[in-house]
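Reminder to self: tokens first, then the designed residues, so the page reads top to bottom the way the pipeline ran.
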């Protein structure tokens, strides 16, 4: 439990420091899940070195929901990320223009659960 708290604090502080340096911080809610679906998708699709903030949010979201993916079916997998997650979220956001990124991720997780590629557990 202590390691989880330390990790959570680290993520919160590093995210806040990065956000404070970013113009998007001043234009949108600081919580990525509250962003409009399409704004979040733009960030997901940007080419950048390493992991971007929205991708880190995706990993934190799935971790926080205690979602366990089958091997190779996690958004952490490059193939899953590129071939499944981003296209799924893109399609969801096209159909639900006023939706938040949080709702899009809920839909993605429901899809993975129905496919039998993920479970919610400890």
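Designed residues (122 positions):
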């Amino acid at each position: 439990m202590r390691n989880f708290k330390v990790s959570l604090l680290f993520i919160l502080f590093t995210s806040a420091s990065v956000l404070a340096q970013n113009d998007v911080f001043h234009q949108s809610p600081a919580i990525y899940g509250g962003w409009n679906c399409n704004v979040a998708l733009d960030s997901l699709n940007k080419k950048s070195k390493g992991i971007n903030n929205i991708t880190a949010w995706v990993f934190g979201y799935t971790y926080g929901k205690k979602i366990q993916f089958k091997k190779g079916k996690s958004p952490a997998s490059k193939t899953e990320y590129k071939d499944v997650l981003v296209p799924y979220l893109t399609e969801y956001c096209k159909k639900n223009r006023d939706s938040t990124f949080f709702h899009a991720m809920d839909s993605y997780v429901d899809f993975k659960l129905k496919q039998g590629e993920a479970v919610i557990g400890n």
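Residues 17-30 have pLDDT under 50 and may be disordered.
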